[in-house]
Hints:
This protein is mainly β and 157 residues long. It has one domain (33-156). The chain contains one helix and nine strands, in the order αβββββββββ. The strands form two sheets. The protein has a five-stranded mixed sheet, with no helix packed on it. The chain is elongated, with a radius of gyration of 26 Å.
Amino acid sequence: xxxxxxxxxxxxxxxxxALADRAPRPMQSPVVQVTCDYLEVTATTGKAxxxxxxxxxxxxxxxxxxxxxxNEFKLxxxxxxxxxxxxxxxxxxxxxxVNVVLVEIVDKSKIRxxxxxxxxxxxxVSNNTTLLDAGDWxxxxxxxxxxxxxxxxxxxx
Length: 157
């Protein structure tokens, strides 16, 4: 009698363990992440137009609006970063830092970013939030006291 109870107890334990393994687990929300490329560019005015090869992805944009005041664009640094939703990512530039936050993805094809540019002394010189089509470039410009430009361009996918 005792062995039949032990067998029954063992069967019950095994069954409850098997059922516990099948129990629904709480769903984890997927990690929202995008990959961004960045360019740091210096903009000056010279005798003849010059655009570094590394600046070619944004060259068309540099011929419009506020960028027309300069005609020489030289790449200072570039790279790629992965951004996770609501997590600040700091990128060290040659002339300061850029802090970027992926705020949200809108309609599966647009990305809302918060971008803060700091100068070499760590002072925030630009702070904005923008909605960007995936694959398009946003360019943040800081005009230096001498009239030169410091451009930071970002694109994300």
